[in-house]
Records
---
Amino acid sequence: MSSKSVKLGIVGLGRWARVLTRAAGKSEKLEIACGFSRSQEKRDAYQNDCNIACADSMEELLANPEIKGIILTVPNEQHLPVAEQVARAGKHIYTEKPIANTLENGLQIEALQHRYGIQVMVGHSARLLKGTRMIKAAIDSGEIGRVSLIEANFSNERALELTPDTWRWYRDKAPGGPLSQLATHQFDALHYLGGEIEEVVSMAARLSPVGAEVDDQSLTLMRFKSGAVAYVGSCWTSPGIYSIRLFGQKGLMHYELDFSTWDTPDKLHETSELYIQRGKNGFSKREILTIPPGDMFQDELEMFAEVCAGGNGCELSAANGNVAVAVVYAALRSIENNGAAVKLQDIFDDAQANIETPQVNFI
């Protein structure tokens, strides 16, 4: 099957469905052929806005033999039940990040692959940013030497806008505030750049004046199995920023982008910065690198089209998605234990035990 013939469905027709639909419209490799929401109002609005037909039921969407994969943009807690329904129909699954609201659910989504012979892909698009890919290329080529330290931040002013009628107000729906909503992007990106993560230390604070339940400041340290260490900061009460600074023994690289263009990634390169600094006297010799145009949302959807066409996995895998969720829960456990270090493997082991013994409370 040619990837150019891949037709996809999309379930959950809110704002993010439109972002992905715009990205899909730029590609010759895939077509979003049908949408579905339980809300008739949302189905009508999506059909009118995007000129894409909508099914009257989930069953109708999944019965369409031309549709090879389904994009899920439903709320996090719905990822598992909807994914299972899609997998039973033999369709491949793309789910927005995080893979699920809990690691237990994420592991069960990952297990759908073996049970139903399908593939699951997770929309951790930040690792596809052109600047991040250029840093990885410099690591792989040996240009900056052995990686020693990574600093990263993803912040915005979301906590200043929260009200009790928004789901992000509540601890159980947005655990850790920016920890689960923003820093999770960086956890996946740093897993991509730094390799396997061994342990996590974290602390948090609540500084927003609006009075929401959630913490709004997050600081997480990670130790990689390579011995390298990393810091991920996330502030929910400041102007938006996304940045990665990676230190190697031959040089360092710094990548920073303009968060205001996150939803229009084809414009990110226009206001982003990437430089490399080589050697011990390199401050005055920093080289500004040209970031090529790109679209991380189009790239990930085309990756999903290839998954659907060939039935093979990709780097935006369920396993990698579960690592990002595990880091979130390791950080939450560390916060609860006054900054004690938490082994990532312990988080995975406990989640698996909870699945096998359902009466045990989730982490």
---
Amino acid sequence: MKQWIISIICVCAFSGLTDILIPDEKNKKAFKTVSTLALLCVFLYPLKSVDNSALFNAFSFDKQEASSDFQSDSDSVVISAFESGIKQALSEQLSPYAIKPEDIQVECRKTQEEIRIKRVTVYIEEDKEEEMKEIITSVIVNYVSSETEIEIIGR
């Protein structure tokens, strides 16, 4: 950043100095054009190091890429709905144990074939943690696969 600002100052100083030193109007116009282009290049130089792939992708009209963007958006909506459904079912089953829906977090992931429940986290009162852990885990096991992580955390 510091070097960029120094470059701008040098180009401006050089342009101003040569504008004063060049007496003839015909040459001044040509030099002003060149110095303006040099100043523009110095101003735009930092953009050279920026990753512009996102910009180029935004203007790409590749149908497969567009469909994958749409698919990932629709996937996130489906995953969110699936997580909400699992959370609702678990909260209904855990309500007798004073577990509220806001005490349950469900995290899912989508593979090519299916949506899997990655983790279920339940927050309970710290003083009830030991006695409730097994009961809550047994209820959750009925809804999830053996690969699912189950966390019972005391507040």
